[in-house]
Request: fold
Amino acid sequence: MSVNLWSLIEPSFTRHGDHPAWICRQRQGKRIVSYRELEQSTLTLADQLRQKGIGSGHTVGVTAPNGPEWCVATLAAWRVGAAVAPIHIGNSDHEIEMQIAAVKPEIMLVHDSDISVDNAHSIDMAIDSEAIERERQQNTLADPDEVAVRIYTSGSTGSPKVVRLAHRNIGSNVLSAERIEHFTPNDRMLALLPFSHAMGITGNFLLSLRVGGTIVAPKVLAANEILTALEEEQISVIIAVPRLFRNVMLGLEKKFSQGSKALQMYIGLIRAMPISIRKHINAPIRKKFGGKIKIWVSGGSHLDGEITRYYHQLGLPLRQGYGLTETSPLTSIQSAWDDAVESVGAPIEDVEVKLHNVDENGNGEVWIKGPNVMLGYEDESQTQEAMEDGWFKSGDIARLDEKGRIHLTGRSKRLIVTEAGKNVYPEELETLLERNPLVKEAGVFERDMKPVVVLAMEGDDPAAEARKVLKEHNSLVSAHNQITRFALTDELPRTPVGKMALQQLPVIFDEFEVKS
Reply:
């Protein structure tokens, strides 16, 4: 089914008029925006865009926090047939300037930002009945093969690209995601991933509106507020990066270990039961997370399978997904209660995956084909390098199991080859190191053909603790995976979507290496 994104969402406005499309948790109470209000504001803004001459072939820049304003701006742009260029509101002024220079929008729709550009237009959520009536007479919607989104991405490695995603690319991904679970208008999704990135657009914004659900915006992206929002708003769907699920796991385990004998016996009972019983007798735990849990999805970077197993042992439905901006982004996802906790699941419907240049261990580069694969980059030379006969070369290294599930082992660009010709996969070493509760974060990269690491540690003496952790690590792994050099920092650098900013690791390492 090839769709225009406005047409994909429009039926929800009719079906769910008074139902909350957004609940925005604010310091001064809640702000609720219904589907009807969302549609009316969108049509009003679409009319304003038309009055300014914006339409097919144009690019509308959008910079706003996750919220109804972001949705209205994006839907209005699609309504008039324009492409959207999301600009992340949390970026520095320099980064924003670079992005705007790359995508060259005809107009910038702005909310809650002091961005200074000549062509800025405020997103004010106005509702104008005359404008709405004029817009309802218009039907110049984009063709499904036209560009819907132009995303500027430097990824985690710092190589800038502008990804062009068509309406059919994103639309196919939304429809595939809709079939992963039985979603209903009763579902509430917590907006944690920025809507300026592909997973926020597809998995939160569009999926929720498509099924008539409610998007909940937390007051701030802080652990206490997120946990409070889960409980108070009865969130059923979370899509987040691995750090959130790791931190929640560590918090749970601390409470369990410090709890009463009865609590520890109860947790032991849950873990001893079959999953069919486990997910019913864990009601007190589920209640702390709102009691309506349907699906939790981790994406953006590798999730340690031990974390998935931990949640499954408690009867909590965590799954790991995989994809890239270039694939709209979802490529695969684990099935419910998947026993292959280290995998990222099998490809979603209508998506094919194959491995290229497979080595003796069954590892090869993941190539992806399907309706979700991008039109290409703005730079045609980058497209030619990344695409071959309709296959997108992901740069990820993986093996496939007998059920076609993808087991990622690393990024081809992060692969370290030692002097002895041994392959070292930094992601695997980071997973092993972060299993130690003293390690908050670990970033591994190559120096002199050997792995080194930047660590963020718990404890009063981080250097001493780091040495203990690395001594234990080195005693458990083969020689080429041993790490002898490290640097310390309070927090590893992250991209806006939560991935490690790999290009910054060498700079931190040079400045903060701990000498032996």
